[in-house]
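Q: What would this chain look like folded?
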Amino acid sequence: MTDYIEKTSKYVMGTYSRFPLTLVKGQGSRVWDDQGKEYLDFVAGIAVCNLGHGHPAVTQVIAAQADALVHVSNLYYTGPMAILAQGLVENSFADKVFFGNSGAEANEGAIKLARKYSYDHFGPGRHEIICAQNSFHGRTLATLSATGQDKVKKGFDPLMPGFSFVPYNDLPALAEAVTDRTCAVLLEPVLGEGGVILPDRDYLKGAKSLCRTDKLLLIFDEVQVGMGRTGTLFAHQFDDVAPDIMTLAKALANGLPLGAVLATEDVAASFTPGAHASTFGGGPVVAAAAGVVLKTLIDGRVLDNCRQVGEYFINRLRSLGNKVNGVKDVRGRGLIIGMELEYDGTEVVKEMMQRGFLINCVQTNVLRFVPPLIVTEQEVDLLLAALEEVLKTK
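A: My prediction, written as C-alpha cells:
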C-alpha cells in the first residue's frame, strides 16, 4: 500500500534507498506485493532466507517456541541455545560459540576476542588487524573501521584505529603488512559486497600459513557466505582451511536476527565472564529456528541443490554474456553469483523488478544473484529469459 511507503518515509530514518515496493507474503523462492503481483526472489533478504520464505519446519518451530518461552536473558540456561551451539561446534572447526544479533555484532565480537586473546598471550600494544580492500564487515563504528570501502566511511571520522588494508588475493602484500603490532588477519572467504570476488586457490591457505608463522589469529567473516551459500556448510571448507575465529549471521536463522562468533577452545578462553555480552543473543525463538536451519543443511539435499543449480546458473549466465554486449565477467560459487557489467547496473535491477524478478547490484556494476538455496533450474530459466530481454536493450 502506498500508505506504508508514505509512513515509512515520514517516520523511519532514511538510511535506505528503498524500491517503491511493499512486500506482504513469501513462499519458497517467491514473494508477493500488496497488489498481488508475484516476484521470483533472487535477493533472499540479501543472502538471508537460504531455505526460502515460509519454510514449514522453521515456521512450526518458531510458533511452538514463541508459545513456550521467548526471552529470559543470558543469566539463565535455555535448551535451544545449547542444542544450536552443540550443532555448530560438531559441524565446524570450532569448540565454542558466542551468540549475538547480527553480522556487525558478530564481527565486533570477533574483533574484541582477537584483541583480548592477543592481550592475554602477548601483552598490550599488539592489537592491529589486517583487512582486505573492498571488504565489508558491518556498519558499527568498529566494523566500519575494518571495512575496506571508503564510500561507506565518509562522514564518520574519526574512525577506530587499529586496522590496515591490503589488496585481496595478494599474499606478498599481506605478509608485508604484518608488524609487531598485528594480532590478526580478517578476511571474507568470498568478497560479497565487494563484487563477488573469489579467492585464488592458495590464498586462504597462504593466509593461514602466514598467521601460524607470525602467531596471528585468522578470522573468517562468513556472515554472507556461510550456512550453505557457496555449496558447503561454510565457505572456507571449499579451500580446506580452518580459521581460529569465524563469524556467522544472515542465513543462520533464515530471517530472524541472530549472529554468532565461533572459535577454537584456546582462543575462546579469552572471553571470560564480563568480557563480552548480548542481552538478546541466542534467545530461545531465534536459536530454535537456527537449529532447524542447521539440521536441514546438514541433511545435504539443500547443499546438493545449491551446487547443482549454482553451476547451471553460472554456465547459463556465461552463455548469455556471450550473446549480449557489455558483460565483462561472470563469477561465483554455489548460489552467490556476480555478473560484472561495463555500465551501471541500477536500471537493470529496476527493469527486472518490473518483469517480476528481484535482483540487486553491488559496486555499481555487478549484478548479484543470491536466491534461496532451494531455487530450481526452471526458476533460473525464467530469470535468464527476462534478463536476456533487458540486457539486449543496453
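Residues 301-321 form the longest helix (21 residues).
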